[in-house]
Amino acid sequence: MKKNLRRLFVAVAALFFTTGASAQIFSEDFTGVVPDEDIAIEGWSNEAIEGTRLWIGKEYGENFYAQFSAYNSGETVNEAWLVTPGIDLDGSTNEVLKFITKSGYYKHDGLSVFVSTDFTGTVGAAMWTELDATFAAGPDNGYSDWIESGNIDLSSYSGTIFIGFKYLGGDPDETTTFQVDDVVVMSADAIENIESVSLNVYPNPATSVLNIDANDVNRVVISSITGQKVMVVENSTRVNISDIPEGIYFVTVVDNNNNTSTSKFVKK
Length: 268
Hints:
Elements (H helix, E strand, L loop, with lengths): L12 H7 L4 E5 L16 E6 L5 E5 L2 E6 L9 E6 L3 E2 L6 E10 L6 E6 L12 E2 L16 E2 L3 E2 L6 E10 L7 E11 H9 L4 E2 L6 E4 L6 E6 L4 E6 L3 E3 L6 E8 L5 E8 L1
Antiparallel strand pairs: 1-13, 2-5, 3-4, 4-13, 5-12, 6-12, 7-10, 7-11, 7-13, 8-9, 8-12, 14-15, 15-18, 16-17, 16-19, 19-20
């Protein structure tokens, strides 16, 4: 599904415009990666500090994401960084970073995220500050659900920043697989406006069907956490979501007068 989606905040744009909140400043859903090849997205840096492995693109169920694992690397230390292009914060306020992660065959705490204001293309030549984020952790015999990082405060920064995802591990003892997706920098004001809208959906989390508690429904739009439109349903309060990947989504209801209401739900 995601490979055919436009990079726009289609589902929540009307809400942003009516509230006056800023839309996203930066987003990446890794749709452009080539599965099982080193990530080479324009503007991104993919650098091995120790060992030879780089972050690779992966795809599962038509969802694309970044992945690193030291499993079977044959190298006792694998340290690799995946760094965003420069993100300009001068035109916004109260910025936050959000992303989601997944872990597989968990053995160690090997993923962290940093911010830099002086990165010029070489990780070791820049100053990095570690950010406080929530990462997926476990299980040791399979893969976790997608886990939201939380709203990571960037409001003390200005100018151009860079976000770096660092994997540190090694074969054979620290070989956890980590996956990263839906990297977004946006205004915290915009997120608060989205989450404050009163729209009741159930069950939440949902597995196959999402019910919407609303009477006047012209259109239902399901969007990813970065704002990519996943599906549109006309004139229904019962939406079959069984075919969309696990993750965190927004559901926006448009009534017959083009008014919108938005809520957030988890697909499991």
